[in-house]
Design brief:
Elements lengths: L2 H10 L3 H14 L4 E5 L2 E2 L4 E2 L7 H6 L3 E2 L2 H11 L3 E6 L11 H10 L4 E6 L6 H10 L3 E5 L5 H7 E2 L3 H17 L6 E8 L10 H5 L6 E6 L17 H18 L2 E4 L11 H10 E5 L2 E2 L11 H7 L2 H10 L13 E2 L1
Helix pairs in contact: 2-11, 2-13, 5-6, 6-8
The structure holds iron/sulfur cluster.
């Protein structure tokens, strides 16, 4: 199921308890309900100013780590059979994993209905694009934090704007050559006071790439990052005005717009993210798998869930929802 459909379903079902009950029922019945976010490597070839990869202290505490092939196979066998979505590349750059198209094939082997891949596209050669298409990738999300070259290269240090455009053009061409509608192309734009106004020119530059989805989210505070101007409050009026225009443009082009307009400063508690974090999300990366207390090398997923009485835990939330705090959790709306 595609992300915008999940988001629409999420907004249709208003009750947090009902959503938790659904996740519990699906888990009991062995049905797919989880979203696996999977980083094979903890590293990135780019240093985006708004990302922890531009924070020297964070980098010192998080040296490069990678999962071995055998570890990936074990984790896939545990988590993929219950996954309704697999997203490869979540908090790091997946093209740094040597044979990254194989990860898509692995998801397909377990029949995960939707597989996404998030990348800065700097290492996405024409050959690798063809391999991702061949493996059956459903959607590729490309991080793009500037419309103009100067902004893009200033906010995404070490990335090259011409290389980005070449690789994106090669991907579009590889899809055409393979006569494939997949992967759908999603552009992810983290908006901040420096790159907001140039969003007005987004389609003048990117309109030629047959994009399926544009995703825009205001900057989130990720610690002591290179980019410091994270107060988006003074820009909310302009943001709303630009997003109104983009929304109309996307509609006329048949493009899905995913954006955060209701809670752009992340100041309101988000019940949907509580359900997501407690019942749906399964993050897998080198050094961390799902929960702090899960020693996945010694236990299986199934054994661990039984041990910690996971279902009872969910039932407890259904009976008594804890007070929710505001958090920097992004919740997109579909336009
Ligand atoms: S490309 Fe993604 S993971 Fe890498 S620095 Fe930028 S935002 Fe962070």
């Amino acid at each position: 199921m595609r992300t915008e459909r999940i988001l629409r379903l999420n907004s249709l079902i208003r009750s947090t308890r009902l959503k938790l009950a659904g996740a519990l029922a699906f888990d009991c019945l062995g049905l797919r309900h989880s979203i696996v976010r999977f980083d094979p490597v903890l590293a990135c070839n780019v240093r985006c100013g708004m990302c922890y990869f531009s924070d020297d202290n964070w980098l010192a505490q998080n040296p490069v780590k990678r999962l071995s092939e055998a570890e990936i196979e074990r984790l896939a066998a545990m988590f993929f059979p219950q996954a309704m979505q697999l997203h490869i590349g979540c908090g790091a750059e997946p093209t740094l994993y040597k044979n990254f198209p194989k990860l898509v094939s692995l998801g397909k082997k377990y029949r995960v209905p939707f597989i996404g891949f998030t990348t800065n596209a700097q290492l996405l050669t024409a050959e690798k694009s063809a391999a991702l298409i061949e493996a059956g990738l459903d959607e590729i999300t490309i991080s793009t934090h500037g419309v103009k070259q100067e902004t893009y290269e200033r906010l995404m240090k070490k990335a090259s704007y011409p290389r980005y455009h070449q690789n994106l053009a090669d991907l579009v061409e590889a899809k055409r050559a393979a006569k494939s509608a997949s992967p759908r192309i999603r552009i992810n734009y983290t908006v901040n006071p420096d790159n907001l106004s140039e969003l007005r020119d987004f389609f003048a530059v990117f309109g030629k790439y047959a994009i399926s989805t544009l995703q825009v989210r205001p900057v989130v505070d990720m610690g002591d990052t290179d980019y410091k101007d994270k107060n988006f409050d003074p820009h909310l009026g302009e943001y709303k005005e630009i997003m109104d225009g983009l929304s109309q443009e996307c509609r006329s082009r048949g493009i899905v717009l995913l954006a955060n307009l209701r809670n752009p400063t992340y100041s309101n508690p988000n019940e949907a993210s509580f359900v997501y974090e407690k019942a749906i999300l399964r993050y897998i990366g080198p050094g961390y798998v799902w929960r702090d207390d899960f020693d996945w090398r010694k236990r299986t997923y199934r054994e661990f869930k039984r041990e910690v009485r996971y279902r009872r835990e969910l039932l407890g939330y259904i009976m008594k929802l804890p007070a929710l705090k505001s958090a920097n959790t992004v919740a997109y709306e579909v336009y």
